[in-house]
Amino acid sequence: xxxxxxxxxxxxxxxxxxxxxxxxxxxxxxxxxxxxxxxxxxxxxxxxxxxxxxxxxxxxxxxxxxxxxxxxxxxxxxxxxxxxxxxxxxxxxxxxxxxxxxxxxxxxxxxxxxxxxxxxxxxxxxxxxxxxxxxxxxxxxxxxxxxxxxxxxxxxxxxxxxxxxxxxxxxxxxxxxxxxxxxxxxxxxxxxxxxxxxxxxxxxxxxxxxxxxxxxxxxxxxxxxxxxxxxxxxxxxxxxxxxxxxxxxxxxxxxxxxxxxxxxxxxxxxxxxxxxxxxxxxxxxxxxxxxxxx
Length: 294
Prior knowledge:
The chain is mainly alpha-helical. The protein is built from 18 helices and no strands. Helix content is 62%, strand content 0%. Helix 14 runs parallel beside helix 16 and helix 15 (218-228) crosses helix 16.
Protein backbone atom coordinates (compact mmCIF):
# COMPACT_ATOMS: atom_id res chain seq x y z
CA UNK A 1 0.00 0.00 0.00
CA UNK A 2 1.49 3.40 -0.99
CA UNK A 3 2.59 5.75 1.76
CA UNK A 4 1.13 9.23 2.14
CA UNK A 5 4.24 10.80 0.58
CA UNK A 6 4.01 8.39 -2.37
CA UNK A 7 0.36 9.33 -2.86
CA UNK A 8 1.23 13.01 -2.89
CA UNK A 9 4.08 12.34 -5.32
CA UNK A 10 1.74 10.47 -7.68
CA UNK A 11 -0.85 13.24 -7.55
CA UNK A 12 1.63 16.07 -8.05
CA UNK A 13 3.25 14.30 -11.00
CA UNK A 14 0.12 15.13 -12.99
CA UNK A 15 0.09 18.81 -11.99
CA UNK A 16 2.03 21.83 -13.24
CA UNK A 17 5.29 22.79 -11.51
CA UNK A 18 3.78 26.10 -10.44
CA UNK A 19 1.01 24.21 -8.63
CA UNK A 20 3.54 22.10 -6.74
CA UNK A 21 5.49 25.22 -5.71
CA UNK A 22 2.38 26.96 -4.40
CA UNK A 23 1.29 23.91 -2.43
CA UNK A 24 4.77 23.51 -1.01
CA UNK A 25 4.61 27.06 0.34
CA UNK A 26 1.31 26.27 2.05
CA UNK A 27 1.74 22.77 3.44
CA UNK A 28 5.34 21.68 2.82
CA UNK A 29 5.41 18.78 0.40
CA UNK A 30 8.43 17.18 2.05
CA UNK A 31 6.23 16.34 5.05
CA UNK A 32 2.67 16.86 3.77
CA UNK A 33 -0.56 16.33 5.72
CA UNK A 34 -2.60 13.19 5.05
CA UNK A 35 -3.81 13.56 1.46
CA UNK A 36 -7.51 12.78 1.82
CA UNK A 37 -7.97 14.70 5.07
CA UNK A 38 -6.28 17.80 3.66
CA UNK A 39 -8.25 17.78 0.40
CA UNK A 40 -11.57 17.13 2.12
CA UNK A 41 -11.06 19.71 4.86
CA UNK A 42 -9.99 22.35 2.34
CA UNK A 43 -12.78 21.80 -0.19
CA UNK A 44 -15.34 22.02 2.61
CA UNK A 45 -14.23 25.63 3.13
CA UNK A 46 -16.03 26.35 -0.15
CA UNK A 47 -14.62 29.39 -1.89
CA UNK A 48 -11.42 29.85 0.04
CA UNK A 49 -8.22 30.59 -1.86
CA UNK A 50 -6.85 27.09 -1.28
CA UNK A 51 -10.12 25.36 -2.22
CA UNK A 52 -10.32 27.22 -5.52
CA UNK A 53 -6.66 26.48 -6.16
CA UNK A 54 -7.07 22.74 -5.57
CA UNK A 55 -9.87 22.64 -8.15
CA UNK A 56 -8.38 24.91 -10.79
CA UNK A 57 -4.88 23.47 -10.35
CA UNK A 58 -6.27 19.94 -10.95
CA UNK A 59 -4.94 18.64 -7.64
CA UNK A 60 -8.32 17.20 -6.68
CA UNK A 61 -8.92 15.71 -10.12
CA UNK A 62 -5.54 13.94 -10.07
CA UNK A 63 -6.31 12.53 -6.61
CA UNK A 64 -9.79 11.42 -7.65
CA UNK A 65 -8.57 9.66 -10.78
CA UNK A 66 -5.75 7.79 -9.03
CA UNK A 67 -7.16 4.54 -7.57
CA UNK A 68 -4.03 4.14 -5.44
CA UNK A 69 -4.15 7.60 -3.89
CA UNK A 70 -7.75 7.40 -2.62
CA UNK A 71 -10.08 4.50 -1.95
CA UNK A 72 -13.34 4.46 -3.89
CA UNK A 73 -15.25 5.51 -0.77
CA UNK A 74 -12.88 8.41 -0.14
CA UNK A 75 -13.06 9.46 -3.78
CA UNK A 76 -16.87 9.48 -3.75
CA UNK A 77 -16.92 11.56 -0.57
CA UNK A 78 -14.45 14.06 -1.97
CA UNK A 79 -16.29 14.15 -5.30
CA UNK A 80 -19.55 14.98 -3.53
CA UNK A 81 -18.10 17.99 -1.71
CA UNK A 82 -16.28 19.14 -4.84
CA UNK A 83 -19.55 19.16 -6.78
CA UNK A 84 -21.05 21.30 -4.03
CA UNK A 85 -18.12 23.65 -4.59
CA UNK A 86 -18.52 23.48 -8.39
CA UNK A 87 -21.72 21.99 -9.83
CA UNK A 88 -20.11 21.44 -13.25
CA UNK A 89 -17.22 19.46 -11.80
CA UNK A 90 -18.38 16.16 -13.33
CA UNK A 91 -17.76 17.61 -16.78
CA UNK A 92 -14.41 19.00 -15.70
CA UNK A 93 -13.28 15.65 -14.33
CA UNK A 94 -14.07 13.95 -17.65
CA UNK A 95 -12.21 16.69 -19.50
CA UNK A 96 -9.21 16.28 -17.23
CA UNK A 97 -9.21 12.54 -17.80
CA UNK A 98 -8.96 13.04 -21.57
CA UNK A 99 -6.74 16.13 -21.62
CA UNK A 100 -3.43 15.88 -23.48
CA UNK A 101 -3.62 12.13 -24.09
CA UNK A 102 -4.50 10.06 -27.15
CA UNK A 103 -7.79 8.25 -26.72
CA UNK A 104 -7.99 5.46 -25.79
CA UNK A 105 -4.42 4.19 -25.95
CA UNK A 106 -2.87 6.67 -23.50
CA UNK A 107 -5.68 6.84 -20.96
CA UNK A 108 -5.20 4.16 -18.26
CA UNK A 109 -8.15 1.82 -17.80
CA UNK A 110 -8.17 2.16 -13.95
CA UNK A 111 -8.53 5.94 -14.32
CA UNK A 112 -11.39 5.53 -16.79
CA UNK A 113 -13.23 3.15 -14.47
CA UNK A 114 -12.73 5.42 -11.46
CA UNK A 115 -13.94 8.44 -13.42
CA UNK A 116 -17.09 6.69 -14.64
CA UNK A 117 -17.87 5.57 -11.10
CA UNK A 118 -17.56 9.14 -9.82
CA UNK A 119 -19.69 10.84 -12.47
CA UNK A 120 -22.61 8.43 -11.98
CA UNK A 121 -24.12 10.78 -9.38
CA UNK A 122 -23.52 14.05 -11.19
CA UNK A 123 -26.44 16.46 -10.52
CA UNK A 124 -26.75 17.39 -14.21
CA UNK A 125 -26.22 14.23 -16.28
CA UNK A 126 -27.17 15.96 -19.54
CA UNK A 127 -23.87 17.82 -19.47
CA UNK A 128 -21.81 14.69 -19.92
CA UNK A 129 -23.96 12.55 -22.25
CA UNK A 130 -22.08 13.51 -25.42
CA UNK A 131 -18.73 12.74 -23.80
CA UNK A 132 -19.99 9.36 -22.60
CA UNK A 133 -20.81 8.34 -26.17
CA UNK A 134 -17.05 8.27 -26.67
CA UNK A 135 -16.75 5.84 -23.75
CA UNK A 136 -19.50 3.65 -25.22
CA UNK A 137 -17.11 2.96 -28.13
CA UNK A 138 -14.12 2.11 -25.93
CA UNK A 139 -12.53 -1.29 -26.77
CA UNK A 140 -12.93 -2.54 -23.18
CA UNK A 141 -16.36 -4.04 -22.52
CA UNK A 142 -16.34 -2.94 -18.88
CA UNK A 143 -16.03 0.68 -19.97
CA UNK A 144 -18.71 0.26 -22.62
CA UNK A 145 -21.03 -1.36 -20.08
CA UNK A 146 -20.71 1.44 -17.54
CA UNK A 147 -21.15 4.12 -20.19
CA UNK A 148 -24.25 2.63 -21.82
CA UNK A 149 -25.95 2.10 -18.45
CA UNK A 150 -25.65 5.84 -17.83
CA UNK A 151 -26.77 6.65 -21.39
CA UNK A 152 -29.74 4.30 -21.13
CA UNK A 153 -30.76 6.03 -17.94
CA UNK A 154 -30.62 9.62 -19.16
CA UNK A 155 -30.23 10.02 -22.94
CA UNK A 156 -33.37 11.22 -24.72
CA UNK A 157 -32.22 10.43 -28.26
CA UNK A 158 -34.16 7.23 -28.97
CA UNK A 159 -32.41 6.48 -32.27
CA UNK A 160 -29.02 6.72 -30.56
CA UNK A 161 -30.13 4.33 -27.80
CA UNK A 162 -31.42 1.91 -30.45
CA UNK A 163 -28.03 2.14 -32.12
CA UNK A 164 -26.30 1.30 -28.84
CA UNK A 165 -28.54 -1.77 -28.49
CA UNK A 166 -26.96 -3.22 -31.66
CA UNK A 167 -23.78 -3.91 -29.67
CA UNK A 168 -22.81 -7.60 -30.11
CA UNK A 169 -21.93 -7.94 -26.42
CA UNK A 170 -24.79 -9.25 -24.25
CA UNK A 171 -23.15 -7.57 -21.29
CA UNK A 172 -23.39 -4.16 -22.92
CA UNK A 173 -26.95 -4.69 -24.12
CA UNK A 174 -28.02 -5.86 -20.66
CA UNK A 175 -26.55 -2.77 -19.04
CA UNK A 176 -28.25 -0.52 -21.56
CA UNK A 177 -31.65 -2.03 -20.72
CA UNK A 178 -30.81 -1.82 -17.01
CA UNK A 179 -30.17 1.89 -17.45
CA UNK A 180 -33.57 2.27 -19.13
CA UNK A 181 -35.14 0.42 -16.18
CA UNK A 182 -34.04 3.22 -13.84
CA UNK A 183 -36.20 5.73 -15.70
CA UNK A 184 -39.41 6.98 -14.16
CA UNK A 185 -41.14 6.77 -17.52
CA UNK A 186 -39.48 4.65 -20.23
CA UNK A 187 -42.59 4.99 -22.43
CA UNK A 188 -40.72 6.29 -25.49
CA UNK A 189 -38.44 3.26 -25.36
CA UNK A 190 -41.02 0.53 -24.85
CA UNK A 191 -40.68 -0.72 -28.44
CA UNK A 192 -37.00 -1.34 -27.77
CA UNK A 193 -37.80 -2.92 -24.39
CA UNK A 194 -40.25 -5.33 -26.03
CA UNK A 195 -37.60 -6.21 -28.59
CA UNK A 196 -35.07 -6.77 -25.80
CA UNK A 197 -37.49 -9.08 -23.98
CA UNK A 198 -36.99 -11.49 -26.90
CA UNK A 199 -33.21 -11.11 -26.94
CA UNK A 200 -31.37 -14.46 -27.25
CA UNK A 201 -29.38 -13.53 -24.14
CA UNK A 202 -31.23 -14.30 -20.89
CA UNK A 203 -29.33 -11.47 -19.18
CA UNK A 204 -30.71 -8.94 -21.64
CA UNK A 205 -34.23 -10.33 -21.80
CA UNK A 206 -34.46 -10.56 -18.00
CA UNK A 207 -33.89 -6.82 -17.61
CA UNK A 208 -36.50 -6.12 -20.27
CA UNK A 209 -38.99 -8.51 -18.66
CA UNK A 210 -38.60 -6.65 -15.36
CA UNK A 211 -39.59 -3.37 -17.04
CA UNK A 212 -42.61 -5.00 -18.68
CA UNK A 213 -43.55 -6.79 -15.45
CA UNK A 214 -43.70 -3.60 -13.44
CA UNK A 215 -45.92 -2.11 -16.16
CA UNK A 216 -48.42 -4.91 -15.49
CA UNK A 217 -47.59 -7.29 -18.33
CA UNK A 218 -48.81 -10.60 -16.91
CA UNK A 219 -46.75 -12.94 -19.09
CA UNK A 220 -43.59 -11.00 -18.28
CA UNK A 221 -44.40 -11.27 -14.58
CA UNK A 222 -44.79 -15.02 -14.95
CA UNK A 223 -41.58 -15.47 -16.93
CA UNK A 224 -39.59 -13.36 -14.48
CA UNK A 225 -40.94 -15.39 -11.55
CA UNK A 226 -39.95 -18.61 -13.30
CA UNK A 227 -36.43 -17.33 -13.88
CA UNK A 228 -36.09 -16.36 -10.23
CA UNK A 229 -36.65 -20.03 -9.38
CA UNK A 230 -34.21 -21.31 -11.99
CA UNK A 231 -31.58 -23.80 -10.86
CA UNK A 232 -29.03 -22.05 -13.09
CA UNK A 233 -27.28 -19.42 -10.98
CA UNK A 234 -26.62 -17.06 -13.87
CA UNK A 235 -30.36 -16.93 -14.60
CA UNK A 236 -31.69 -16.78 -11.04
CA UNK A 237 -29.17 -14.13 -9.92
CA UNK A 238 -30.04 -11.82 -12.81
CA UNK A 239 -33.78 -12.35 -12.31
CA UNK A 240 -33.60 -11.69 -8.57
CA UNK A 241 -31.58 -8.54 -9.14
CA UNK A 242 -34.05 -7.27 -11.74
CA UNK A 243 -37.04 -8.06 -9.54
CA UNK A 244 -35.63 -6.47 -6.39
CA UNK A 245 -34.37 -3.36 -8.16
CA UNK A 246 -37.11 -2.66 -10.69
CA UNK A 247 -40.29 -4.59 -9.80
CA UNK A 248 -40.69 -5.02 -6.05
CA UNK A 249 -40.44 -1.29 -5.21
CA UNK A 250 -43.50 -0.74 -7.42
CA UNK A 251 -45.52 -3.31 -5.51
CA UNK A 252 -45.47 -1.38 -2.24
CA UNK A 253 -48.67 0.12 -0.93
CA UNK A 254 -46.75 3.09 0.45
CA UNK A 255 -46.98 5.42 -2.54
CA UNK A 256 -45.04 8.10 -0.69
CA UNK A 257 -42.11 5.76 -0.20
CA UNK A 258 -42.39 4.69 -3.82
CA UNK A 259 -42.28 8.28 -5.04
CA UNK A 260 -39.18 8.90 -2.95
CA UNK A 261 -37.54 5.78 -4.32
CA UNK A 262 -38.31 6.78 -7.91
CA UNK A 263 -37.00 10.28 -7.31
CA UNK A 264 -33.72 8.86 -6.02
CA UNK A 265 -33.54 6.50 -8.94
CA UNK A 266 -33.64 9.28 -11.54
CA UNK A 267 -31.58 11.79 -9.59
CA UNK A 268 -28.48 9.62 -9.72
CA UNK A 269 -28.74 7.73 -6.44
CA UNK A 270 -28.47 3.98 -6.50
CA UNK A 271 -31.29 1.78 -5.18
CA UNK A 272 -31.34 1.86 -1.40
CA UNK A 273 -30.33 -1.32 0.48
CA UNK A 274 -33.72 -1.62 2.15
CA UNK A 275 -35.34 -1.81 -1.27
CA UNK A 276 -32.86 -4.02 -3.06
CA UNK A 277 -31.29 -6.42 -0.55
CA UNK A 278 -29.82 -8.68 -3.22
CA UNK A 279 -28.14 -6.00 -5.31
CA UNK A 280 -24.83 -6.16 -3.46
CA UNK A 281 -24.71 -9.90 -3.91
CA UNK A 282 -25.60 -9.72 -7.59
CA UNK A 283 -23.00 -7.08 -8.33
CA UNK A 284 -20.40 -9.48 -7.04
CA UNK A 285 -21.40 -12.23 -9.45
CA UNK A 286 -19.47 -12.09 -12.69
CA UNK A 287 -22.00 -14.32 -14.42
CA UNK A 288 -25.01 -12.12 -13.93
CA UNK A 289 -23.92 -8.55 -13.38
CA UNK A 290 -20.20 -8.23 -14.10
CA UNK A 291 -19.88 -4.59 -15.13
CA UNK A 292 -18.90 -3.62 -11.59
CA UNK A 293 -15.93 -6.00 -11.64
CA UNK A 294 -12.56 -4.31 -11.85
